[in-house]
Amino acid sequence: MTAELVRGQNHPLCEIRLVIRVSAGVPVLAGATLGDENGTVQGSQWVAHPGAPALPGVEVSRQAATEHRLAVDLDALPEAVHRVDVFLALPAGAEGPRRFGAVAAPHTTVEGLDGTELACYTLTGLDSETAVLALELYRRQGAWKVRAMGQGYAAGLPALLADQGLREAADLAAHAHRASAHGPSTTLPTPPPPHDTTARTPHDTSATVPHDVCATTAYDTPAATPHETHEPGPQGTPACGTAGQTPSGGCGYDAQNPYDAHASGTAPPDPSGRVDYRHPGRPPHGTPPPPAPAADDRPAQPVAGDAAGWSMEERLYNQVWGMFEDLARTTAAYRSAVDFADSRLEKELDQALADPRDRLGAAGDAAREAAHARRTQLVDQARAVLDRDLAQLTAESEVVEPALPTAYARWDNPVWHGYCVPAEPPMALRLGDLHLPESVPLRIPLLVRLPLERGLWLDSGAGAADGFPDSAELRHLALEAAVAIAVRLLAVHPAGDFAVQIIDPAGAGAAAFGPLLRSGVLAAPPATGAAGLTELLERLTRRVDLVQMALRAGAPESLPADVDTARQLLIVHDFPHGFDDRAVTRLRYLADEGPGVGVHLLLVADREDAAAYGPLLDPLWRSLLRLTPVPDDHFADPWVGHAWTYEPSLVPAGSHIVHQVLTEVARARTQHR
C-alpha cells in the first residue's frame, strides 16, 4: 500500500530509479533543484526546468501541463547532491487562476519503475501561493527518503529559487516560465539503466514495513524548536514563559532559539524550513565522517558529528536537533497509525452492528473479533516501526552523548572532569533534556543558542509539578537548578567574559548560593534588602543605558571605566518579594532591553506570588523561557505539537564536579585580572 504523507512527514525509499507523478487540475510548471548537504543549490546548472529539462539523474517536462512525470535516477546524481526538491508553479502571465488556493490541491505520487506507488502527498492548505515546494528526496547516512514539503511562496517562483540560494533566481524563473509556455509537450522516457546499481544502492531499513504505516525518522536540518503549550498569549500569540509559549522564543528561540542563527552570526532560517549553519567568512565546512559500513539487514551505524557544520561542535549541535525532529516525527507517525486503527475499528463495528439480525449470534461475534484483530495488526505494525526507529535513535544517542562538549554535556559526563576554561564561548548551552511517553529511556538534549537573548524563568510554584506535595522542597529544587545554570554559563565562557549578579531580598537562598560565594566567582555578594536590591537594579539599568548609547553612537571606547562590559546574568530569587513598583519597572526594562547589550535575567519565582500585580507583569512572564525544577510536559514541538516532558540538568547528588569547575573558573578569573 502507498504511504500517504502529510506535510512534514517522510518515508524511506526502497528503489533508486523513480517516477514522480504530478496531477494539478490546471496547467502548472514542474521542475526540480539539486541541493548539497546544506540544501544549497550551487547554481542554475543544478535546476531542472522547462528551459533545461535534463540534468544528471533528473528529467522534467518541457511544458506547463495538468499532468507531469518527472524521472529521477538517484544513482546517477552527482556525488555532491544530497537533496532533490520538486517544485510546482502557476504559469506567469497566463490566463486562469493566479493562486493555488483557487484550484484543486495538487497531488504527487512517487513510484517505482514497475508502477508501484511508494508514497503520495496532496498539497492541501495552500492559499495565495503561486509556487510551492512539493516533495524533497534527501539522503541521510547513505539511505534516501522522501519528505512531504508543501512550502508555498506567494511571491512565486523567483522567491522559491531565491530561498534555494540562487542569486540569479529572477532571471532563471523568467526563463523557466517562457520555456514552459512555448516548449513541446514531453512524455518522459524511462530512466536508463544505471551503470552499477549494487555499489551505491542505499540500504532500505524498512523493506518489511507495510506502506500504510508511516515511518518518519530522518530530518537533516532542524527547522524549529520546542515551545511551551498551555496558555496562549494575547491575540493568539505564543505566551512565552508561561505554559503557552513558542520558542520562537524558547519557545522559538530568538537567540535562545537553537534554530535562530542571528545570535551566533550564522545565516537566519529561511521560510522553507532549512537552515544554513555556515559561519559567514568561513570556508565551507568539511564533509562529516561517513557512517560505518552496515550489515546486510541493519541500518548504518551512527557516527557522532554526522551532520552539516563547519566544526565538530556545530555538527553535534545540528545532529542533536536532527534527532529531536526524528523522534517527533516517528512518534507522530505511530500515533497517527493508532488513531487510524481505532477509527477503522469503530467504523467496522458500526457496520457489523448496522443490521439488527447480525448483532447477536456467531456471525456478529466473528465480525467483531475480525475487526479487533485487524486493529491489533495495524497497531502492532506501527509499533514495530516505532521500535525500530527508537532503537536506531537510541544507538545514535549512545554515540553522540559521550562525544558532546562541556556546554552540551550532562553533569555526569566525564568530559567535565577534564574541564578547563575555554578561549571562546560555545554556540549553545544545554538546559535539560526532553522525552516523549513512547520513548521514556531516550532523552534528547534541550540546547539553546548563545548568547541568550531571552531570559529564563525557573518556576518554583505548584504549577511546575502537578501533585508535588512539598512546596518548600520545590522552591529549593528550583534554586538548585538556577545555580546549576549559572555555574554552566560561567564555565563555558572565557575568563572575564561572563559575570553573575544575585538579588536575594530576604537572604533565603544563602545556602544554595554557597558554592558561588565560597569559590569567589560572583562579581559581588548577593544583594539583600530593599537598599541592596535598588542599588543593583540601578547599576544594571545604567549599564544597559550607557552601552546602548555607545553602540548607537558607534563609540564603545567612550564608555566610563566603571562600566563592566562583560555579559551579566542577574538571578532574582523569590520574586516579587522585596520589589516595589519602581523596582518591578526596572526589572521589566532589563528583561526587555538587557539581552541586546549582554544583560540576561533568570527569575526563580512562583507566578502566583505576583498575582497582586494583576496583568502588569504578564509581559514579563511571557518574555521568559519557562523551565521547571522537576519533570513537566509543558514543551511542544513545532511540527506536530507533541507534549514533551522537560527534565532539568541537575548535578548528581554527592558529586563534587561543581566545586572542581568553580575552582578552575575562579583561578582563571584571578589570572585574567
Beta-strand percentage range: 15-25%
Q: What is the CA-based Rg, rounded?
A: 28 Å
Runs in which pLDDT lies below 50 for 5 or more consecutive residues are 184-224, 230-296
CATH-defined architecture of one domain:
Sandwich
Number of strands: 22
What is the terminal-to-terminal distance? 69 Å
Report the structural category.
alpha+beta
Biggest sheet record: 12 strands, mixed
- Give the name of the CATH superfamily of one domain: sav2460 like domains
From the spread of the alpha carbons, the general shape counts as globular
CATH topology of one domain: Lipoxygenase-1
Helix share bin: 25-40%
Topology of this protein?
Elements: E1 3-5, E2 10-12, E3 17-35, E4 47-48, E5 54-55, E6 58-59, E7 65-73, E8 83-89, E9 107-112, E10 117-122, E11 131-140, E12 143-153, H1 157-163, H2 169-182, E13 227-228, H3 312-352, H4 362-403, E14 428-435, E15 444-449, E16 455-459, H5 471-492, E17 498-503, H6 514-519, H7 529-553, E18 567-575, H8 581-593, E19 599-605, H9 618-622, E20 624-627, E21 632-636, E22 643-648, H10 657-672
Parallel strand pairs: 1-10, 16-19, 16-20, 17-18, 18-19
Antiparallel strand pairs: 2-12, 3-4, 3-7, 3-8, 3-9, 5-6, 6-7, 8-11, 9-10, 11-12, 13-21, 14-15, 14-22, 21-22
Helix pairs in contact: 1-2, 3-4, 5-10, 7-8
